[in-house]
Amino acid sequence: MSMRDRHMFLARLALAVTALAFSGASAAQTTAPRLGRSAPADLIRRMDRTVDSVGTGLPKGSGTVASGRAIFATKCASCHGEGGTGSMAEAVAGGRGTLASLRPIKTVGSYWPFATTLFDYIRRAMPLSAPQTLADSEVYGLVAYLLSIDGIVPGNVRLNRMNLPRIQMPNRHGFVSLEGREFDGNIDRPALVQVKGRRP
């Protein structure tokens, strides 16, 4: 095959490929894709696992500091370090009294204003390698353990949906709304917050 014939062959091949691509694109434009289906209301209810700042949405069950310590050791410590002091992932314990310093350490005990938010986050997103696989009792235990590390709850506490919302976090009053009112965790109100310079 001469050089001229080779160029002609490649040009015809390119034209054929282009024509096929355009015909496929126009066919795709005339036929709307049918992807998925509407989610049934009962499925949406089962998947809505939100827990708000006052505890609405907390499930039945309970967990102790001791059970949480064991779960943390097997499912959390590899990322968050022994005792929650940090490793591959950030520390989740310690840092109390550092928020007004030049090097604030934002952890559950030093920064988070609501204990219920901790339950919601762990149940929804942890462990990172297998989110939403923890039983509710395991999540209650993990929350109890993490709060006990910083002395927020005693070491013999059993947390459940009745007593978890009553826990007063050290930085509970450390947030204000943009209007200057204390932030109460209601997501229907302006949620942008700023840290007051208080030491918890």
Describe the protein.
- 38% of the residues lie in helices and 6% in strands.
- The strands form 2 sheets. It has a two-stranded antiparallel sheet with strand order 1-2.
- It starts with a helix and ends in a 5-residue tail after the last strand.
- The model is unreliable at 188-200 (pLDDT under 50).
- The protein is built from 6 helices and 4 strands, in the order H-H-E-H-H-H-H-E-E-E.
- It is elongated, with a radius of gyration of 27 Å.
- The chain is mainly alpha-helical.
- It has helices spanning 3-30, 41-47, 65-75, 77-80, 115-125, 136-149, and strands at residues 62-64, 158-160, 175-177, 193-195.
List the topology elements.
Layout: H1 3-30, H2 41-47, E1 62-64, H3 65-75, H4 77-80, H5 115-125, H6 136-149, E2 158-160, E3 175-177, E4 193-195
Antiparallel strand pairs: 1-2, 3-4
